[in-house]
């Protein structure tokens, strides 16, 4: 069982690293994550937000059993079409709707093109925090779907945030 979980985790990480611009890979990764969650919970599926979903702030469920809980303003930001080389900065904002301090342990991105920075201090119940994300389109082309994974003392422990958009290569000047 542990070997299967390790194998699925390694496979999921490998797919994550290759998923900056492949929507089909994103879907496969989401399916693998659901399977890993099933194995971790003895067959019980946890309620998670995947990169392919686009919930509104009002439709995001808060787990009442969690002592600390996120309520996100948004979990998906569509930056539209940009020119190759442009940098997109976006701030994902959240409120702790739990009963204990919310502590973010880590934030990571699915590729090196995206750098997240999170609130370092504990966020008290009712308090707000943010994840600032910087996406650099240098060397990128076409549809982009970087995913940011947030690990915190919440249930589930991991939350996924997504950026989406299209990077357009500048056309060469006509001779």
TrEMBL record:
Per UniProt, the keywords (alphabetical) are: Signal
User: Where do transmembrane segments lie in this chain?
Assistant: none
Check the UniProt entry and state the signal peptide residues, or none. Answer: 1-23
Q: Does the keyword Calcium apply?
A: no
Protein name, entry field:
DUF1573 domain-containing protein
